[in-house]
Design brief:
Number of strands: 11
Distance between the termini: 18 Å
Structural class: mainly beta
Order of helices and strands: EEEEEEEEEEE
Number of helices: 0
Helix content: under 10%
Low-confidence stretches: none
Number of domains: 1
Shape: globular
CATH architecture: Beta Barrel
Length: 142
């Protein structure tokens, strides 16, 4: 068993996504479902730059303990015209100051030659929701 106290990472990009108002399906057997459509956004970073397509969504499950389980799919259109599918699950919970914090594990899919390196990595993202937006910093585990 390893004795890891920190993980080496490489910064990939910042995602700023815009969101529609949520659709709430309350009181289901798994919890309250909250569906939030992603309507666009920007991606900026040293290795990935582009826009977030207007076709993704976040399918949250609000849990009894006050946390939310995320299930998100988006498409990034890079500045050089390539498409990258991004899917991630994660948890939104309060941080030590009571602010909502999101931690996810994005996976990428693309056939674009300049970005196939994304297919073989595991990323982590740390983010926070805003008013009609969400922001993430994405990192590659190295």
């Amino acid at each position: 068993m390893s004795d890891i106290t920190s993980l080496p990472v490489e910064f990939l990009c910042h995602i700023h996504a815009t969101l529609n108002p949520p659709i709430v399906v309350p009181g289901g057997p798994q919890g309250t479902r909250v569906i939030v459509r992603v309507t666009g956004g920007t991606v900026t970073g040293p290795r990935i730059n582009g826009t977030v397509e207007d076709l993704g969504a976040d399918w949250l499950t609000m849990r009894a303990d006050g946390t939310a389980q995320l299930d998100v799919r988006i498409v990034i259109n890079t500045d050089d015209g390539e498409a990258i599918h991004v899917a991630y699950k994660g948890i939104m919970s309060p941080d030590a100051n009571g602010n909502r914090r999101i931690i996810t594990a994005p996976l990428f899919e693309t056939g674009a030659e300049n970005y196939t390196w994304l297919n073989g990595i595991q990323a982590i993202a740390v983010g926070a929701p805003g008013a009609g937006t969400v922001d993430y910093d994405l990192y590659r585990l190295v």
